[in-house]
Amino acid sequence: MNKNIGILGGDLRIIFLSKILAKDTYNIYTYGLENANFANSNIIKCATLEEMCKFCDIIISSIPFSKNGIYINSPFSIKTINIDETLKILSNKRLIAGSIDKEILEKANKNKVDIIDLMADERLTILNAIPTVEGALQIAMENTEITIHNSRCLVLGFGRIGKLLSKNLKELGANVSCMARKDKDLTWIKSYGYKDIYIDDLSKNLNGYDIIFNTIPALILDDNKLKILKEQNSNAVIIDLASNPGGVDFKKAKEYDIKVIQALGLPGKVAPYTAAKYIKETLEKILN
Fold this sequence. Notes:
Layout: E1 4-8, H1 12-23, E2 27-31, E3 43-45, H2 49-55, E4 58-61, H3 83-89, E5 94-97, H4 102-110, E6 114-117, H5 122-142, E7 152-156, H6 160-171, E8 175-180, H7 183-191, E9 195-198, E10 211-214, H8 223-231, E11 237-240, H9 250-255, E12 260-262, H10 266-270, H11 272-287
Parallel strand pairs: 1-2, 1-4, 2-3, 4-5, 5-6, 7-8, 7-10, 8-9, 10-11, 11-12
Helix pairs in contact: 1-11, 5-6, 5-11
């Protein structure tokens, strides 16, 4: 198997991944990581994307691949990397990244780029929920003046993150309520000992919470619901864990003086090394 791998942009997770792969005797060629600190002779920083492509047929990029659909997510680069231009250069290469928009997938196919979305792997998304939840708990503790123990917490959504977050909150002694849409999820919520709230009844169940966690990437806490929180003189801190555009009307929340923290990309911030190991396990299945 070809031991040359290209690394294109990315956050701390991808930097740690590069180091882990280099220790496994892969030859790593990077572009868009000029400000990253690599203390390994197997990691080579390329001046251009074309230079990297001379050596590598497999290119690994960031999670999420892009935040705006125009440029590759590359916080450790001094330059902006245009997606359309990049896909033309990567023609006939294999590109592996995460959370790739449908429009970008279509562009990749038109440019004959064999593109793979890491976050389509169910195992990785479940593992990714672990550092996300730990990061959410850290944010909650840093932004409240109470303990999680005996606090009243509302979790919006009962997917992978919602399930794990609710479990951790309860184990820390919180009083947990969960909102969901499906009868199946509401039944599981009740069976775990949490208070179950149907999505259409949320407006009637917003009183008295200390912390509200949102995991749904759709507008849940809209003007109407935020107004209810304001009218109830709620001091609840809202922590939005959903991917962009999130689930909160941030403009209205600011207007109503409601504290909202948008917590994006937590695995790469709170546990980048662990997150990198999870990514490597998924990559091994693809590369082998």
